[in-house]
Amino acid sequence: MPSLPTLIFIAIFCLESLAAMLQNGFLVTMLGREWVRCRMLSTSDMIVACLAASRFCLHGVAMANNLLASLDFSRAVPCMNIFWDLFNALTLWYTALLAAFYCVKISSFSHSTFAWLKWRISRLVPKLIKGSLIICGLEVISSATGNILFGQRKVSLSSYRNETLVYRVQASFQLYFFLYDGFVWSIPFLLFLVSTVLLIVSLCWQLGQMRDLRPGPCDPSTQAYTMALKSLTFSLIFCTLYFLSLFASALKIINFQNHWHWAWEVLIYANICLHSTVLVLRSPKLKKGLKTWPQLQCPCDAGSQGFGRCWP
């Protein structure tokens, strides 16, 4: 029988996952409804829809994986781990792509590279979405292949009853997968980090110029930039904590058992849930849709071009 702290953290984790799935399911439903009625989506909405879909699946797989592991269904866990790797990689890449898109579209840098990207980014996004899916698929295939080879090697060495050799092989494979995961996760995270920091710098510079021209703090434009900076800062904190949580989990410095394992899971997935909340609350159209759903009119009927800015 699980202890009381374990049951509490299991309940919190399940409620958190269900809330995150509800949030992301709402995003996918709203954007999917717009696409069905209008036969088009803005570039930013494409990325948000893909990100919400990957996060919906990630929370579902994480909840199923943890519950199966706690119930000793060990045979189903490796299969679930493959899906978790896929959706986790997609979540990281689409988060980075959303940050890079807004950095290019909104930042005021005058470098020729930014000018070229601003002109091309909207056409490149569908290709980048497909490219991210292909990259994540290849990453999952290589990771699954490595796990299969490791399992076969471990079984063959166990037949010789050489525990020392088995331990050394297991340690070397753990080091390999730690370095592999760190490399795979670091690429989209660094893209997200650089894009978000550049966008924050650009918005701070624009906000400083606006305050010089319009010193009033209640100016609507000044308030909009201030809210955008707050949203970006929160997003940067949430995504950084999620990446560090994944990195610490892969490092396995601490052996998380019982309620500590579930407490760690609550911490990791709380960051994704909070970031999804920011996406909904920072989009005026999504906030309106949240209040009036499902009696929404098609955004195309009102001449809208999308759900507005969902700051990364």
Secondary structure: helix percent? over 70%
Total beta strands = 0
Total count of helical runs of at least 4 residues: 8
**Beta-strand proportion:** under 5%
Would you tell me the overall average pLDDT? Answer: 77
CATH architecture identity? Up-down Bundle
CATH class wording: Mainly Alpha
Series of secondary-structure elements, N-terminal to C-terminal: HHHHHHHH
The CATH topology: Rhopdopsin 7-helix transmembrane proteins
Low-confidence stretches: 294-311
Please indicate the count of domains. 1
Based on secondary structure, the structural category is: mainly alpha
Biggest β-sheet description: none
Please tell me how large the radius of gyration is: 22 Å
Distance between the termini: 42 Å
Which term fits the overall shape?
Answer: globular
Membrane topology: Multi-pass membrane protein
Subcellular location: Membrane
Keywords: G-protein coupled receptor, Glycoprotein, Membrane, Receptor, Sensory transduction, Taste, Transducer, Transmembrane, Transmembrane helix
Family: Belongs to the G-protein coupled receptor T2R family.
Task: Please tell me about this protein's structure.
This protein is mainly α and 312 residues long. The protein has one domain (13-284): Rhopdopsin 7-helix transmembrane proteins (Up-down Bundle). The protein is globular, with a radius of gyration of 22 Å. α1 (4-38) packs parallel to α7 (258-281), α2 (43-70) runs antiparallel to α3 (77-106) and α3 runs parallel beside α5 (163-213). It starts with a helix and ends in a 20-residue tail after the last helix. It is built from 8 helices and no strands. It is 82% helix and 0% strand. The chain has helices spanning 4-38, 43-70, 77-106, 112-158, 163-213, 220-251, 258-281, 284-292.
